[in-house]
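Sample 1 of the test manifest.
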Amino acid sequence: MNALQSLSAACSAILPRLLEHLGYTLASVSIGFLLGLVLGILLTRTPKLSRYILPVLSVLNTIPGIVFIGVLFLYLGRRSATVLIALSVYAMFPVLKNTFTGLNEVDAQYKEAARGCGMDHFQRLVLVELPLAMPTIIGGLRIATVYTVSWTVVASMIGLGGLGDFIYKGVSSNNNALILQGAIPAALLAFVLGTLVDILQRHVVPRGLRKGRDEE
Amino acid sequence: MSYGSQTILHDLNFEIKEGQFAVFIGPSGCGKTTTLKMINRLIQPDSGHIYLDGKDISSVDRYELRRHTGYVIQQIGLFPNMTVAQNICVVPKLLKYPKEKNEQTVRDMLAMVDMPYEKYAHKYPSELSGGQQQRIGILRALAASPPVVLMDEPFSALDPMTRRSLQLEVKSLQQRLNKTIVFVTHDMEEALDLADVIVFMDKGRIVQMAPPEEMLEHPATEQVREFLGKHLPAPSPADMTAADFMRTGIITVNQNRGIYECVSRMQHHNVDTLLVVDEQKRYQGTVSIADIRLTGHVVKTIGPLVRCTTPTVTVGDNAKDCFDLLISSGFPYLVVLNGDQTVAGIITKTSMASAMAEHLWG
Protein backbone atom coordinates (compact mmCIF):
# COMPACT_ATOMS: atom_id res chain seq x y z
CA MET A 1 0.00 0.00 0.00
CA ASN A 2 2.89 2.27 0.83
CA ALA A 3 4.53 1.61 -2.47
CA LEU A 4 1.30 2.32 -4.36
CA GLN A 5 0.73 5.47 -2.36
CA SER A 6 4.20 6.81 -2.97
CA LEU A 7 3.90 5.98 -6.67
CA SER A 8 0.67 7.91 -7.00
CA ALA A 9 2.19 10.72 -4.95
CA ALA A 10 5.17 10.75 -7.29
CA CYS A 11 2.85 10.74 -10.29
CA SER A 12 0.84 13.65 -9.03
CA ALA A 13 4.11 15.46 -8.37
CA ILE A 14 5.46 14.61 -11.83
CA LEU A 15 2.38 15.50 -13.89
CA PRO A 16 2.38 19.30 -13.46
CA ARG A 17 6.14 19.39 -14.10
CA LEU A 18 5.72 17.18 -17.13
CA LEU A 19 3.04 19.48 -18.52
CA GLU A 20 5.25 22.52 -17.91
CA HIS A 21 8.05 20.73 -19.66
CA LEU A 22 5.83 19.81 -22.57
CA GLY A 23 4.51 23.36 -22.77
CA TYR A 24 7.98 24.92 -22.95
CA THR A 25 9.08 22.34 -25.50
CA LEU A 26 6.09 22.70 -27.82
CA ALA A 27 6.05 26.49 -27.64
CA SER A 28 9.75 26.94 -28.30
CA VAL A 29 9.91 24.25 -31.01
CA SER A 30 6.97 25.90 -32.80
CA ILE A 31 8.56 29.34 -32.66
CA GLY A 32 11.97 27.92 -33.53
CA PHE A 33 10.53 25.96 -36.47
CA LEU A 34 8.80 29.00 -37.95
CA LEU A 35 11.88 31.19 -37.46
CA GLY A 36 14.19 28.55 -38.87
CA LEU A 37 11.95 27.92 -41.87
CA VAL A 38 11.58 31.60 -42.74
CA LEU A 39 15.24 32.45 -42.19
CA GLY A 40 16.32 29.32 -44.04
CA ILE A 41 14.20 30.29 -47.05
CA LEU A 42 15.47 33.88 -46.96
CA LEU A 43 19.08 32.72 -46.80
CA THR A 44 18.68 30.54 -49.91
CA ARG A 45 17.42 33.63 -51.78
CA THR A 46 20.52 35.61 -50.83
CA PRO A 47 23.41 33.25 -51.52
CA LYS A 48 26.02 36.00 -51.08
CA LEU A 49 24.74 37.00 -47.65
CA SER A 50 24.36 33.41 -46.52
CA ARG A 51 28.04 32.81 -47.10
CA TYR A 52 28.72 35.16 -44.16
CA ILE A 53 25.67 34.47 -42.01
CA LEU A 54 25.81 30.67 -41.91
CA PRO A 55 29.30 30.42 -40.33
CA VAL A 56 28.29 33.02 -37.72
CA LEU A 57 25.19 31.01 -36.91
CA SER A 58 27.08 27.78 -36.53
CA VAL A 59 29.49 29.51 -34.13
CA LEU A 60 26.53 30.79 -32.10
CA ASN A 61 25.14 27.27 -32.14
CA THR A 62 28.21 26.01 -30.31
CA ILE A 63 27.72 28.37 -27.36
CA PRO A 64 26.41 26.11 -24.59
CA GLY A 65 22.74 26.67 -23.82
CA ILE A 66 23.54 27.20 -20.19
CA VAL A 67 25.72 30.20 -20.98
CA PHE A 68 23.11 31.70 -23.29
CA ILE A 69 20.27 31.26 -20.82
CA GLY A 70 22.46 32.73 -18.07
CA VAL A 71 23.19 35.85 -20.12
CA LEU A 72 19.52 36.23 -21.05
CA PHE A 73 18.63 35.84 -17.37
CA LEU A 74 20.84 38.82 -16.54
CA TYR A 75 18.97 40.99 -19.05
CA LEU A 76 15.41 39.70 -18.87
CA GLY A 77 15.22 38.36 -15.35
CA ARG A 78 13.45 35.31 -14.08
CA ARG A 79 10.59 35.06 -16.54
CA SER A 80 9.11 32.42 -18.85
CA ALA A 81 10.10 34.63 -21.75
CA THR A 82 13.77 34.10 -20.88
CA VAL A 83 13.37 30.36 -21.16
CA LEU A 84 11.21 30.53 -24.28
CA ILE A 85 13.57 32.84 -26.14
CA ALA A 86 16.60 30.74 -25.28
CA LEU A 87 14.91 27.47 -26.22
CA SER A 88 13.40 28.90 -29.42
CA VAL A 89 16.77 30.14 -30.61
CA TYR A 90 18.31 26.73 -30.01
CA ALA A 91 15.39 24.94 -31.69
CA MET A 92 15.78 27.27 -34.66
CA PHE A 93 19.33 26.24 -35.58
CA PRO A 94 18.72 22.69 -36.86
CA VAL A 95 15.56 23.73 -38.72
CA LEU A 96 17.31 26.67 -40.34
CA LYS A 97 20.29 24.59 -41.36
CA ASN A 98 18.17 21.80 -42.79
CA THR A 99 15.82 24.18 -44.61
CA PHE A 100 18.80 25.86 -46.21
CA THR A 101 20.43 22.56 -47.19
CA GLY A 102 17.16 20.98 -48.29
CA LEU A 103 16.24 23.85 -50.56
CA ASN A 104 19.72 24.08 -52.03
CA GLU A 105 19.75 20.37 -52.73
CA VAL A 106 16.60 20.47 -54.85
CA ASP A 107 17.77 19.13 -58.20
CA ALA A 108 18.38 21.80 -60.86
CA GLN A 109 16.15 19.97 -63.35
CA TYR A 110 13.07 20.62 -61.20
CA LYS A 111 13.92 24.29 -60.75
CA GLU A 112 14.50 24.62 -64.47
CA ALA A 113 11.23 22.84 -65.29
CA ALA A 114 9.36 25.04 -62.80
CA ARG A 115 10.81 28.16 -64.39
CA GLY A 116 10.01 26.87 -67.87
CA CYS A 117 6.40 26.18 -66.84
CA GLY A 118 6.03 29.84 -65.94
CA MET A 119 5.97 29.66 -62.15
CA ASP A 120 6.95 32.86 -60.35
CA HIS A 121 9.31 32.84 -57.35
CA PHE A 122 6.62 32.15 -54.79
CA GLN A 123 4.96 29.39 -56.82
CA ARG A 124 8.31 27.72 -57.37
CA LEU A 125 8.98 27.78 -53.64
CA VAL A 126 5.57 26.51 -52.54
CA LEU A 127 4.72 24.08 -55.34
CA VAL A 128 8.13 22.58 -56.01
CA GLU A 129 11.04 23.52 -53.78
CA LEU A 130 9.49 23.25 -50.31
CA PRO A 131 7.71 19.93 -51.02
CA LEU A 132 10.94 18.47 -52.36
CA ALA A 133 12.96 19.79 -49.40
CA MET A 134 10.34 18.65 -46.87
CA PRO A 135 12.03 15.40 -45.81
CA THR A 136 15.18 17.33 -44.91
CA ILE A 137 13.27 20.13 -43.19
CA ILE A 138 11.26 17.71 -41.05
CA GLY A 139 14.53 15.96 -40.23
CA GLY A 140 15.65 19.30 -38.76
CA LEU A 141 12.40 19.55 -36.83
CA ARG A 142 13.02 16.12 -35.34
CA ILE A 143 16.47 17.09 -34.11
CA ALA A 144 15.10 20.36 -32.70
CA THR A 145 12.28 18.57 -30.86
CA VAL A 146 14.38 15.89 -29.26
CA TYR A 147 17.09 18.33 -28.23
CA THR A 148 14.65 20.86 -26.87
CA VAL A 149 13.24 18.26 -24.49
CA SER A 150 16.67 17.97 -22.90
CA TRP A 151 17.48 21.68 -23.14
CA THR A 152 14.26 22.43 -21.27
CA VAL A 153 15.87 20.76 -18.28
CA VAL A 154 18.10 23.84 -18.21
CA ALA A 155 14.97 25.95 -17.77
CA SER A 156 14.64 24.85 -14.16
CA MET A 157 18.08 26.22 -13.49
CA ILE A 158 16.48 29.61 -13.11
CA GLY A 159 13.63 28.04 -11.19
CA LEU A 160 10.94 28.05 -13.84
CA GLY A 161 9.84 24.47 -13.48
CA GLY A 162 9.81 21.57 -15.86
CA LEU A 163 11.19 18.11 -15.20
CA GLY A 164 14.60 19.66 -14.57
CA ASP A 165 13.31 20.69 -11.14
CA PHE A 166 13.53 17.11 -9.91
CA ILE A 167 16.94 16.62 -11.39
CA TYR A 168 18.43 19.77 -9.85
CA LYS A 169 16.90 19.04 -6.49
CA GLY A 170 17.99 15.43 -6.71
CA VAL A 171 21.54 16.36 -7.58
CA SER A 172 21.83 18.97 -4.83
CA SER A 173 20.31 16.71 -2.17
CA ASN A 174 22.05 13.59 -3.45
CA ASN A 175 18.66 11.89 -3.97
CA ASN A 176 18.88 9.41 -6.81
CA ALA A 177 15.16 8.63 -6.77
CA LEU A 178 14.40 12.29 -7.35
CA ILE A 179 16.87 12.46 -10.24
CA LEU A 180 15.20 9.47 -11.89
CA GLN A 181 11.81 11.04 -11.27
CA GLY A 182 12.90 13.80 -13.64
CA ALA A 183 15.16 11.87 -15.99
CA ILE A 184 12.84 9.00 -16.88
CA PRO A 185 9.81 11.13 -17.87
CA ALA A 186 12.13 13.45 -19.83
CA ALA A 187 13.57 10.51 -21.74
CA LEU A 188 10.09 9.14 -22.40
CA LEU A 189 8.90 12.56 -23.54
CA ALA A 190 11.79 12.85 -26.00
CA PHE A 191 10.98 9.42 -27.37
CA VAL A 192 7.25 10.13 -27.73
CA LEU A 193 7.73 13.53 -29.39
CA GLY A 194 10.38 12.08 -31.70
CA THR A 195 7.92 9.40 -32.74
CA LEU A 196 5.20 12.00 -33.32
CA VAL A 197 7.53 13.92 -35.66
CA ASP A 198 8.23 10.68 -37.52
CA ILE A 199 4.49 10.22 -38.01
CA LEU A 200 4.21 13.84 -39.14
CA GLN A 201 7.10 13.17 -41.54
CA ARG A 202 5.12 10.40 -43.15
CA HIS A 203 2.19 12.72 -43.74
CA VAL A 204 3.93 15.81 -45.07
CA VAL A 205 6.46 14.13 -47.32
CA PRO A 206 4.90 13.99 -50.80
CA ARG A 207 3.82 10.49 -51.70
CA GLY A 208 5.94 10.47 -54.84
CA LEU A 209 9.06 10.99 -52.73
CA ARG A 210 8.49 8.27 -50.18
CA LYS A 211 10.82 5.39 -50.45
CA GLY A 212 9.64 1.82 -50.37
CA ARG A 213 5.98 2.82 -50.50
CA ASP A 214 3.46 0.14 -51.38
CA GLU A 215 2.39 -0.41 -54.93
CA GLU A 216 -1.19 0.58 -55.38
CA MET B 1 24.29 37.67 -76.20
CA SER B 2 27.39 37.25 -74.07
CA TYR B 3 28.55 35.79 -70.79
CA GLY B 4 31.14 38.03 -69.21
CA SER B 5 33.63 38.95 -71.84
CA GLN B 6 32.76 35.95 -73.97
CA THR B 7 30.17 36.55 -76.61
CA ILE B 8 27.96 33.50 -77.06
CA LEU B 9 25.75 34.62 -79.92
CA HIS B 10 26.53 37.06 -82.72
CA ASP B 11 23.97 38.93 -84.78
CA LEU B 12 21.51 36.09 -84.93
CA ASN B 13 18.77 36.76 -87.41
CA PHE B 14 16.21 34.19 -88.40
CA GLU B 15 12.52 33.55 -88.74
CA ILE B 16 10.62 30.37 -87.99
CA LYS B 17 7.29 30.11 -89.74
CA GLU B 18 4.12 29.13 -87.94
CA GLY B 19 3.60 25.39 -87.82
CA GLN B 20 7.20 24.66 -88.72
CA PHE B 21 9.38 22.10 -87.01
CA ALA B 22 12.71 23.91 -86.66
CA VAL B 23 15.71 21.96 -85.44
CA PHE B 24 18.84 23.68 -84.14
CA ILE B 25 22.00 21.61 -84.43
CA GLY B 26 25.71 22.21 -84.07
CA PRO B 27 28.78 21.29 -82.03
CA SER B 28 28.46 21.71 -78.26
CA GLY B 29 28.85 25.28 -77.15
CA CYS B 30 27.59 26.64 -80.46
CA GLY B 31 24.81 28.56 -78.75
CA LYS B 32 21.82 26.46 -79.79
CA THR B 33 20.46 25.99 -76.27
CA THR B 34 21.09 29.64 -75.44
CA THR B 35 19.09 30.62 -78.51
CA LEU B 36 16.25 28.34 -77.42
CA LYS B 37 16.19 29.70 -73.88
CA MET B 38 15.97 33.25 -75.12
CA ILE B 39 12.64 32.43 -76.76
CA ASN B 40 10.93 31.90 -73.38
CA ARG B 41 13.13 34.48 -71.67
CA LEU B 42 14.98 32.01 -69.45
CA ILE B 43 17.99 33.92 -70.78
CA GLN B 44 17.86 37.61 -71.65
CA PRO B 45 19.61 38.78 -74.79
CA ASP B 46 22.01 41.73 -74.33
CA SER B 47 20.59 43.35 -77.39
CA GLY B 48 18.12 42.71 -80.15
CA HIS B 49 14.52 41.65 -80.25
CA ILE B 50 12.59 38.42 -80.48
CA TYR B 51 9.11 38.54 -81.92
CA LEU B 52 6.52 35.88 -81.29
CA ASP B 53 3.48 36.16 -83.49
CA GLY B 54 4.50 39.72 -84.30
CA LYS B 55 4.81 40.75 -80.65
CA ASP B 56 8.13 41.66 -79.04
CA ILE B 57 8.49 39.13 -76.20
CA SER B 58 10.36 41.59 -73.99
CA SER B 59 7.09 43.50 -73.70
CA VAL B 60 5.23 40.41 -72.43
CA ASP B 61 5.27 39.39 -68.76
CA ARG B 62 7.87 36.64 -68.63
CA TYR B 63 5.74 34.28 -66.54
CA GLU B 64 2.79 34.71 -68.91
CA LEU B 65 5.13 34.17 -71.86
CA ARG B 66 6.44 30.90 -70.40
CA ARG B 67 2.93 29.66 -69.56
CA HIS B 68 2.01 30.09 -73.22
CA THR B 69 5.20 28.47 -74.50
CA GLY B 70 5.74 24.75 -74.05
CA TYR B 71 9.11 23.72 -72.66
CA VAL B 72 10.62 20.23 -72.64
CA ILE B 73 14.09 19.56 -71.24
CA GLN B 74 16.57 16.73 -71.54
CA GLN B 75 16.43 15.83 -67.82
CA ILE B 76 12.63 15.61 -68.15
CA GLY B 77 12.11 17.35 -64.79
CA LEU B 78 8.69 15.96 -63.94
CA PHE B 79 7.88 17.13 -60.42
CA PRO B 80 8.36 14.02 -58.27
CA ASN B 81 5.93 15.28 -55.65
CA MET B 82 3.07 15.38 -58.15
CA THR B 83 1.15 12.63 -59.90
CA VAL B 84 1.11 12.27 -63.67
CA ALA B 85 -2.23 14.13 -63.80
CA GLN B 86 -0.93 16.93 -61.57
CA ASN B 87 2.21 17.25 -63.65
CA ILE B 88 0.21 17.56 -66.86
CA CYS B 89 -2.00 20.20 -65.24
CA VAL B 90 0.77 22.39 -63.86
CA VAL B 91 0.50 25.09 -66.51
CA PRO B 92 -3.32 25.01 -66.89
CA LYS B 93 -3.52 25.46 -63.12
CA LEU B 94 -1.11 28.40 -63.21
CA LEU B 95 -3.40 29.88 -65.85
CA LYS B 96 -6.36 29.21 -63.53
CA TYR B 97 -8.29 27.12 -66.03
CA PRO B 98 -11.43 25.51 -64.56
CA LYS B 99 -10.92 22.20 -62.83
CA GLU B 100 -13.31 20.18 -65.04
CA LYS B 101 -11.52 21.38 -68.13
CA ASN B 102 -8.16 20.30 -66.71
CA GLU B 103 -9.53 16.88 -65.88
CA GLN B 104 -10.64 16.51 -69.49
CA THR B 105 -7.24 17.77 -70.68
CA VAL B 106 -5.49 15.02 -68.74
CA ARG B 107 -7.73 12.36 -70.29
CA ASP B 108 -7.29 13.70 -73.83
CA MET B 109 -3.56 14.10 -73.41
CA LEU B 110 -2.95 10.61 -72.03
CA ALA B 111 -5.10 9.15 -74.81
CA MET B 112 -2.85 10.84 -77.38
CA VAL B 113 0.18 8.89 -76.20
CA ASP B 114 -1.66 5.63 -75.54
CA MET B 115 -1.27 5.72 -71.78
CA PRO B 116 -4.66 4.73 -70.29
CA TYR B 117 -5.97 7.33 -67.82
CA GLU B 118 -7.05 4.72 -65.30
CA LYS B 119 -3.65 3.12 -65.24
CA TYR B 120 -1.35 6.13 -65.29
CA ALA B 121 -3.06 9.35 -64.19
CA HIS B 122 -2.44 8.79 -60.50
CA LYS B 123 1.02 7.29 -60.71
CA TYR B 124 4.09 9.21 -59.62
CA PRO B 125 6.95 9.91 -62.03
CA SER B 126 9.24 7.50 -60.18
CA GLU B 127 6.86 4.68 -61.12
CA LEU B 128 7.28 5.31 -64.86
CA SER B 129 10.00 4.29 -67.30
CA GLY B 130 12.24 6.98 -68.80
CA GLY B 131 10.30 6.95 -72.06
CA GLN B 132 6.95 7.23 -70.29
CA GLN B 133 8.30 10.07 -68.16
CA GLN B 134 9.36 12.07 -71.21
CA ARG B 135 5.97 11.41 -72.84
CA ILE B 136 4.41 13.05 -69.79
CA GLY B 137 7.06 15.79 -70.02
CA ILE B 138 5.85 16.51 -73.54
CA LEU B 139 2.20 16.41 -72.47
CA ARG B 140 2.97 18.87 -69.69
CA ALA B 141 4.39 21.21 -72.31
CA LEU B 142 1.33 20.78 -74.55
CA ALA B 143 -1.40 20.87 -71.89
CA ALA B 144 -2.19 24.58 -72.11
CA SER B 145 -2.15 24.28 -75.93
CA PRO B 146 0.70 26.73 -76.50
CA PRO B 147 1.28 27.64 -80.15
CA VAL B 148 5.04 27.24 -79.73
CA VAL B 149 6.87 24.40 -78.00
CA LEU B 150 10.58 24.53 -77.14
CA MET B 151 12.44 21.25 -76.80
CA ASP B 152 16.00 21.12 -75.51
CA GLU B 153 17.52 17.76 -76.49
CA PRO B 154 14.44 16.00 -75.15
CA PHE B 155 15.39 12.51 -76.25
CA SER B 156 19.14 12.35 -75.83
CA ALA B 157 18.93 10.60 -72.44
CA LEU B 158 16.68 7.82 -73.76
CA ASP B 159 17.66 4.47 -75.23
CA PRO B 160 17.61 4.28 -79.05
CA MET B 161 14.36 2.29 -79.31
CA THR B 162 12.41 4.62 -77.03
CA ARG B 163 13.96 7.63 -78.72
CA ARG B 164 12.80 6.40 -82.10
CA SER B 165 9.19 5.92 -81.01
CA LEU B 166 9.06 9.27 -79.20
CA GLN B 167 10.45 11.02 -82.28
CA LEU B 168 7.65 9.56 -84.35
CA GLU B 169 5.06 10.54 -81.74
CA VAL B 170 6.33 14.10 -81.51
CA LYS B 171 6.36 14.48 -85.26
CA SER B 172 2.80 13.22 -85.58
CA LEU B 173 1.60 15.34 -82.61
CA GLN B 174 3.19 18.38 -84.19
CA GLN B 175 1.47 17.77 -87.49
CA ARG B 176 -1.85 16.89 -85.90
CA LEU B 177 -1.91 19.88 -83.56
CA ASN B 178 -0.16 22.24 -85.97
CA LYS B 179 2.42 23.40 -83.42
CA THR B 180 5.50 25.43 -84.10
CA ILE B 181 8.34 23.47 -82.55
CA VAL B 182 11.84 24.70 -81.85
CA PHE B 183 13.99 21.69 -81.15
CA VAL B 184 17.63 21.49 -80.12
CA THR B 185 19.66 18.37 -80.77
CA HIS B 186 23.18 17.20 -81.52
CA ASP B 187 21.95 14.17 -83.41
CA MET B 188 21.89 14.78 -87.16
CA GLU B 189 19.71 11.77 -87.84
CA GLU B 190 17.09 13.16 -85.46
CA ALA B 191 17.32 16.55 -87.14
CA LEU B 192 16.92 15.10 -90.63
CA ASP B 193 13.95 12.98 -89.57
CA LEU B 194 12.01 15.64 -87.71
CA ALA B 195 12.87 18.99 -89.19
CA ASP B 196 11.03 21.12 -91.70
CA VAL B 197 13.99 23.41 -91.45
CA ILE B 198 17.42 22.77 -89.92
CA VAL B 199 19.42 25.61 -88.40
CA PHE B 200 23.09 24.72 -88.24
CA MET B 201 24.99 26.83 -85.73
CA ASP B 202 28.65 27.19 -84.83
CA LYS B 203 30.39 29.61 -82.47
CA GLY B 204 27.24 31.63 -81.95
CA ARG B 205 26.44 32.13 -85.61
CA ILE B 206 24.06 30.50 -88.02
CA VAL B 207 26.12 28.61 -90.58
CA GLN B 208 23.22 27.37 -92.65
CA MET B 209 19.45 27.40 -92.35
CA ALA B 210 17.74 25.12 -94.83
CA PRO B 211 15.26 22.28 -95.20
CA PRO B 212 16.89 18.85 -94.71
CA GLU B 213 16.84 17.99 -98.43
CA GLU B 214 18.55 21.22 -99.38
CA MET B 215 21.14 20.83 -96.61
CA LEU B 216 21.93 17.32 -97.81
CA GLU B 217 22.30 18.48 -101.40
CA HIS B 218 24.25 21.64 -100.72
CA PRO B 219 26.00 21.64 -97.34
CA ALA B 220 27.19 25.23 -96.85
CA THR B 221 30.54 24.38 -95.27
CA GLU B 222 32.87 21.46 -94.72
CA GLN B 223 31.68 21.36 -91.09
CA VAL B 224 28.05 20.94 -92.10
CA ARG B 225 29.13 18.21 -94.50
CA GLU B 226 30.98 16.48 -91.68
CA PHE B 227 27.91 16.62 -89.43
CA LEU B 228 25.78 15.20 -92.22
CA GLY B 229 28.38 12.44 -92.58
CA LYS B 230 26.88 9.14 -93.56
CA HIS B 231 23.54 10.77 -94.37
CA LEU B 232 25.02 12.48 -97.42
CA PRO B 233 23.90 10.89 -100.67
CA ALA B 234 26.63 8.64 -102.06
CA PRO B 235 28.42 10.11 -105.09
CA SER B 236 27.22 8.59 -108.35
CA PRO B 237 29.59 5.94 -109.76
CA ALA B 238 30.36 8.06 -112.81
CA ASP B 239 31.76 10.82 -110.55
CA MET B 240 34.11 8.58 -108.61
CA THR B 241 37.83 9.13 -108.94
CA ALA B 242 41.00 7.17 -108.42
CA ALA B 243 41.15 8.56 -104.89
CA ASP B 244 37.96 6.67 -103.98
CA PHE B 245 39.44 3.36 -105.07
CA MET B 246 43.07 3.44 -104.03
CA ARG B 247 44.84 1.83 -101.13
CA THR B 248 46.87 4.30 -99.11
CA GLY B 249 49.78 3.91 -96.70
CA ILE B 250 52.10 2.54 -99.37
CA ILE B 251 55.72 1.68 -98.49
CA THR B 252 58.24 3.83 -100.38
CA VAL B 253 62.01 3.93 -100.41
CA ASN B 254 64.45 6.67 -101.33
CA GLN B 255 66.44 6.02 -104.53
CA ASN B 256 69.78 6.68 -102.74
CA ARG B 257 69.26 3.93 -100.22
CA GLY B 258 71.35 0.78 -100.21
CA ILE B 259 70.33 -2.63 -101.44
CA TYR B 260 70.46 -4.12 -97.95
CA GLU B 261 68.08 -1.59 -96.43
CA CYS B 262 65.72 -2.03 -99.33
CA VAL B 263 65.61 -5.79 -98.92
CA SER B 264 65.08 -5.62 -95.19
CA ARG B 265 62.23 -3.18 -95.69
CA MET B 266 60.63 -5.58 -98.17
CA GLN B 267 60.96 -8.42 -95.71
CA HIS B 268 59.63 -6.33 -92.90
CA HIS B 269 56.50 -5.35 -94.78
CA ASN B 270 56.22 -8.66 -96.59
CA VAL B 271 56.12 -7.20 -100.12
CA ASP B 272 58.11 -7.97 -103.26
CA THR B 273 58.11 -4.47 -104.75
CA LEU B 274 58.70 -0.99 -103.33
CA LEU B 275 57.87 2.39 -104.82
CA VAL B 276 60.97 4.52 -105.21
CA VAL B 277 60.94 8.26 -104.55
CA ASP B 278 63.52 11.05 -104.73
CA GLU B 279 64.53 13.56 -102.05
CA GLN B 280 61.34 15.56 -102.60
CA LYS B 281 59.27 12.36 -102.26
CA ARG B 282 58.47 12.49 -105.98
CA TYR B 283 57.72 9.17 -107.62
CA GLN B 284 60.60 7.69 -109.63
CA GLY B 285 59.55 4.13 -110.33
CA THR B 286 59.52 0.73 -108.71
CA VAL B 287 62.11 -1.73 -107.55
CA SER B 288 61.40 -5.45 -107.29
CA ILE B 289 63.05 -8.24 -105.32
CA ALA B 290 63.60 -10.20 -108.54
CA ASP B 291 65.82 -7.44 -109.99
CA ILE B 292 67.72 -7.14 -106.73
CA ARG B 293 68.42 -10.89 -106.70
CA LEU B 294 69.60 -10.75 -110.33
CA THR B 295 71.90 -7.70 -110.27
CA GLY B 296 71.95 -6.51 -106.67
CA HIS B 297 75.54 -7.68 -106.12
CA VAL B 298 77.00 -5.24 -108.65
CA VAL B 299 75.33 -2.02 -107.44
CA LYS B 300 75.41 -0.30 -104.06
CA THR B 301 72.21 1.74 -104.22
CA ILE B 302 68.90 0.82 -105.75
CA GLY B 303 68.96 3.76 -108.16
CA PRO B 304 70.10 1.75 -111.25
CA LEU B 305 67.51 -0.96 -110.62
CA VAL B 306 64.49 1.34 -110.72
CA ARG B 307 61.99 0.58 -113.47
CA CYS B 308 59.27 2.97 -114.50
CA THR B 309 57.09 0.71 -116.54
CA THR B 310 54.18 0.57 -114.04
CA PRO B 311 51.33 2.76 -115.32
CA THR B 312 50.55 5.84 -113.21
CA VAL B 313 47.38 7.86 -112.81
CA THR B 314 46.58 10.96 -110.75
CA VAL B 315 44.14 11.14 -107.86
CA GLY B 316 41.53 13.09 -109.81
CA ASP B 317 41.36 10.63 -112.70
CA ASN B 318 38.05 8.99 -113.43
CA ALA B 319 37.68 5.68 -111.65
CA LYS B 320 36.34 3.83 -114.63
CA ASP B 321 39.33 4.87 -116.80
CA CYS B 322 41.65 3.67 -114.06
CA PHE B 323 39.83 0.37 -113.98
CA ASP B 324 40.13 -0.05 -117.75
CA LEU B 325 43.83 0.78 -117.59
CA LEU B 326 44.40 -1.71 -114.79
CA ILE B 327 42.73 -4.51 -116.76
CA SER B 328 44.20 -3.69 -120.17
CA SER B 329 47.78 -3.02 -119.03
CA GLY B 330 48.07 -6.41 -117.35
CA PHE B 331 50.03 -4.91 -114.46
CA PRO B 332 48.98 -6.04 -110.98
CA TYR B 333 48.56 -2.44 -109.83
CA LEU B 334 48.50 1.22 -110.81
CA VAL B 335 50.41 3.93 -108.97
CA VAL B 336 48.27 6.90 -108.01
CA LEU B 337 50.12 10.21 -107.83
CA ASN B 338 49.16 13.52 -106.31
CA GLY B 339 49.40 16.68 -108.38
CA ASP B 340 52.98 17.26 -107.21
CA GLN B 341 54.12 13.77 -108.34
CA THR B 342 54.25 12.38 -104.80
CA VAL B 343 52.71 8.98 -104.14
CA ALA B 344 49.06 8.99 -103.02
CA GLY B 345 48.43 5.25 -103.14
CA ILE B 346 48.01 2.31 -105.45
CA ILE B 347 45.02 0.74 -107.11
CA THR B 348 44.94 -3.04 -107.11
CA LYS B 349 42.14 -5.34 -108.15
CA THR B 350 41.47 -6.00 -104.48
CA SER B 351 41.27 -2.32 -103.52
CA MET B 352 38.95 -1.71 -106.45
CA ALA B 353 36.69 -4.63 -105.52
CA SER B 354 36.41 -3.58 -101.88
CA ALA B 355 35.68 0.05 -102.78
CA MET B 356 32.95 -1.11 -105.14
CA ALA B 357 31.49 -3.40 -102.51
CA GLU B 358 31.40 -0.55 -100.02
CA HIS B 359 29.70 1.69 -102.51
CA LEU B 360 27.17 -0.97 -103.34
CA TRP B 361 26.32 -2.26 -99.88
CA GLY B 362 27.54 0.55 -97.58
